[in-house]
Fold this sequence. Notes:
The protein has helices at residues 44-51, 83-93, 99-108, 122-135, 152-167, 204-208, 263-272, and strands at residues 4-15, 18-24, 27-29, 33-38, 59-64, 68-71, 140-144, 172-177, 189-194, 197-203, 211-217, 227-233, 237-243, 257-259. With 279 residues, it is α/β, with parallel strands linked by helices. The longest helix is centred in the middle third of the chain and has 16 residues, at 152-167. The structure holds adenosine-5'-triphosphate.
Amino acid sequence: MTEVAFETHDLGKRYKNLWALKDFNVALPANKVIALVGANGAGKSTLMSIAAGILPATEGSITVGGRVVLLAQEKPLYRSFSVADMLNFGRHLNTVWDQQRALSWLGRFEIPLDRPCGKLSGGQQTQVAMAVALGARPSLLLLDEPLANLDPVARREVTGELLAEVADSDMTVVLSTHVVAELAGVGDHLLLLRQGRCALEGDVEELLSQHVRLVGPRADAPPVEGQVVQSTHTERQSAFVVRTLLGPETPVAAPWQAQPVTLEDLVLAHLKTAPGEEL
Ligand SMILES: Nc1ncnc2c1ncn2[C@@H]1O[C@H](COP(=O)(O)OP(=O)(O)OP(=O)(O)O)[C@@H](O)[C@H]1O
């Protein structure tokens, strides 16, 4: 059986009249990079804060195994501290500390150890915060859009290195992001939130193998059984993204064509599905 990084049961969080999370039930696999996707206000930060123990749930429960570290967009760094001082600080704050791991992360991104944090670029500060987070040897590392101020190349490098860290350890990383176009290759697992609910969750490859785009003459419904995730129409043509057992292998009669979907297509299609239409 796959180990679970964290599991929720009917988890809910209410801020005054607003349910930021509701009826939230997931069991996320351990030792993966999990991409957490959702529109602004979908509940991503709320979920991460509850998982990190910073925010109490209103109802339901969450079970998290091991040490949790949450890294948000605002970096927990002291401007006058040198990078080396920040690592020392991390070592004093944490009962478990892996100096080598922190140093090796900084080395990979060529961050000078003697430079005050306040004199580093935003992207370099991100790397220091990442190094301190990794030095704490979390079992679950929650990254709440901390990579937002990195350029696309640096972001790709960091996510690549994170995948390597996960492969070399038993750590699980949950990475929230808005950048749907850059999702491919970022995570092996997807968790998609819509209006405080889990709209889609699963292994990325598996999800891709369960979705197909069907393009054909204008029609009200696709020519196959399945969950219609998205439909778009022109005067003469219809296109449907459908969740089916056979995905891109779904047999269709001409003139219909079955095409695979990209991860970006899949996520955008599910983000746009109206509530109540999901499985
Ligand atoms: N402290 C708070 N008080 C009241 N409402 C809040 C509070 N924090 C969040 N919310 C509301 O809860 C909902 C979920 O917010 P949350 O920050 O978890 O979403 P998010 O998916 O992280 O959004 P974003 O991508 O914009 O960061 C939103 O409607 C937000 O306005």
